[in-house]
Amino acid sequence: MPASSSVSRAELLRSAPLNSWVALSEDESSIVAVASTYEEAVRKSEEAGVSDPVLTKTPEAWAYLLV
């Protein structure tokens, strides 16, 4: 995956609510559903017309990396 796609995906996930299941489009370019459970995220993404979403859960809090 190109680095620009990774940055884009990271930015998308940072914009999603914390401690939520997030369904991304197949190409990972947009969020198609956000839900409190995995099953609900799958259902919502199917309702949005995305049959093969990329599902992930956002953390309870973002940690900062010290460099």
Question: How would the blueprint of this fold be written?
Answer:
Layout: H1 3-15, E1 21-24, E2 31-35, H2 38-47, E3 54-57
Antiparallel strand pairs: 1-2, 1-3
Task: Please explain how this structure is put together.
The relative contact order is 0.22. Helices cover 34% and strands 19% of the residues. With 67 residues, it is an alpha+beta fold. The model has no long low-confidence stretch (mean pLDDT 88). It has 2 helices and 3 strands, in the order H-E-E-H-E. It has one domain. A 3-stranded antiparallel beta sheet has the order 2-1-3, with helices on one face.
Structural class: alpha+beta
The number of distinct β-strands equals 3
Distance between the termini: 24 Å
User: How would the global form be characterised?
Assistant: globular
Q: Structurally, how many domains make up the residues?
A: 1
On the 0-100 scale, what is the average pLDDT? Answer: 88
In the sheet with the most strands, the strands line up as 2-1-3
Output the number of helix runs.
2
Quaternary arrangement of the chains shown? single chain
Return Rg in Å: 12 Å
Order of helices and strands: HEEHE
